[in-house]
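Email to the structure team, subject: Catalase model.

Hi all, the expression group asked for a predicted structure before they design truncation constructs. Nothing fancy, just the tokens so they can compare against earlier work. One-line instruction: predict Catalase, return tokens.
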Amino acid sequence: MTNKKLQQLEQYKADDRNKALTTNQGLKVSEDEHSLKVGSRGPTIMEDFHFREKMTHFDHERIPERVVHARGTAAHGIFECYEDASDITKAKFLSEKGKQTPVFVRFSTVAGSRGSSDTVRDVRGFATKFYTEEGNYDLVGNNIPVFFMQDAIKFPDFIHAVKPEPHNEIPQAQSAHDTFWDYIANNQESAHMIMWHLSDRAIPRSYRMMEGFGVNTFRFVNAAGKAHFVKFHWKPKLGVHSFVWDEAQKVAGKDPDFHRRDLYENIEQGNFPEFELGVQLIPQEDEFKFDFDILDPTKIWPEEEVPVRILGKMTLNRNVDNFFAETEQVAFHVGHVVPGIDFSNDPLLQGRLFSYTDTQLIRLGGPNFHELPINRPVCPFHNNQRDGYGRQTINVGPVSYHKNSIHQNTPAPVPASEGGYEHYQEKVDGMKVRERSKSFEDHFSQARMFWLSLTDIEKEHLIKAASFEVGKVMRLEVRQQVVEMFSHIDGNLATQLAMNVGVQPPTNKQHVETDKVSPAVSMYINPVLSTETKKVAIVVNETTEDLAKIIEPLKAEKITVELVSDRQQTIQGLVVDHTMDTTHPVLYDGLIVAAKFDDQKMKNKLNEFITETFNHYKPISLLVAPTTNPTVKVGDEGVVQTIESFIEALRIGRHWNRPTAIG
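Reply from the structure team: attached below.
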């Protein structure tokens, strides 16, 4: 950084130093960390004008693309219920084995704009709209089960920190910069979330191979009024898989649309993504029986303590017809619920209940976004709301108010016994305060639990990710703060990070005291081994022998095959899909070499293909051994000769025992 730039930054600091924090009306603010609640664990109060002003301003900052989750793609599908779940909820779409409900799912990244790349390190959105007979139900979650903050009032600050820095609009769709890590170091409730963010979970191989979580704590209520606290899970049938970081970066350059293309093409080919819906349940009376607060959105409920009950399966079987009309105009809201699903006092959830509708008002031009075809419920809807931007319903008659005799109170409220929505009757008692429950104060125990639960290769990847991210931070003092924060999680982790990013080892190496583990958080302890829908490149030319014998056993295992050669031609009646200039090995899950080349340039390109695949730990079949690549040979882990052996290697996926690989 130049001296002039440093002087400018110091001047910016001086301009804002010692200034009082106020509302937009000039009112001095005494507290900016906590929303106004009834008691420290109670619901957020609507009269909190500071929270509403801050969140409203944030929600309306950008038009027309979403402030967050701008980069997305979507598909239609069907949810099928596995069982009658009426013992835990009266929601009708979960009331009968085999019952089917139409759904629409939007996957997304959080930080980048609509034009950013798919494969950046980021949280992924996983939002599902159920078009039920009782109205639309929106399950709006992420691919990571926790979040960066405990109270929604801090969400605008966090997004401001992770978005491109305002003085130069750099960097795009990245968290590897000063303001993000300065936020993390100074808001250490983010410690657990940042561990997930640095893990391989943040660079998924495909939307089809990504877990989804509801994040917040909700309630299920059955017909008898019995309530359970509930957390939602989407479990992909293909298992959870990721890129390695070097690979993810290269894919961003070779095909920035990789994830949306992958989803679209697989649905078109009939490889319909499937996810099972599961729930974790805690009876109302067991709310305080755990060593963490179940309302804290920076905490998971370890699956070993609170098992996941699987309720049904979602199949995505149809692509959108029009990206703008459907994917861009779909409006999700955590407050769109049906009878049997209710809310908790999770302070992040309480803020989301306000923010989502407020955001749609500016994005979609007014209060009638529910009338857009993609948002319209499949059941009839009637009320006395009228007019406004985008109104499509043509209401007739003189009545637009409730309590009337002209239409005999039509439309009329419906009793709960006949399907009307009734909120769970929770007793709330407490002083109006801006504070957080003391049970939310432990920020590091679950972060350490996450670290202890990872395999050695996952830990290695996390350290590399942290070193890359923090190494991009220009200010050494911020790097040092981050290292000190990580020392509360694990001293060795913090020390290795300090060495890699050029700051002092942590002064405090005393991590939080816990030896608790949750193997369910690891991607690699219990992997799903499969070849289904994986994509393989076969390098071919005129020297290739009996191509059909290579392809047929692959297709029998539901493996997608693309032919790659020196030019687009026809080989044994099959059209070559790509040349080595129009594709790249990072776009495939494995490589089969079935050709030799005489031209030295082509030999070099083939060697690059082989080396890149090897460095990213993917399987390789050398049906024809290249003569100029001695570093990769049959006998290395995952490097085989026969197609049968290659299929088994592909089933495993990554082959980590490659000491010379540099991925």
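The longest strand covers residues 308-319. The mean pLDDT is 94. Ping us if the truncation boundaries need rechecking.
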